[in-house]
Amino acid sequence: MNEEPKKKRTWTEEIEVAGNELVDRVKELIEDSSATRLIIRKPNGDVLMEVPVVAGGAVGGVLVLFAPILAAIGAMAALLAQFKVEIVREKDEDEDKDKQ
Question: What does the alpha-carbon distance between residue 14 and residue 40 come to, in Å, rounded to a whole number?
Answer without folding.
Answer: 10
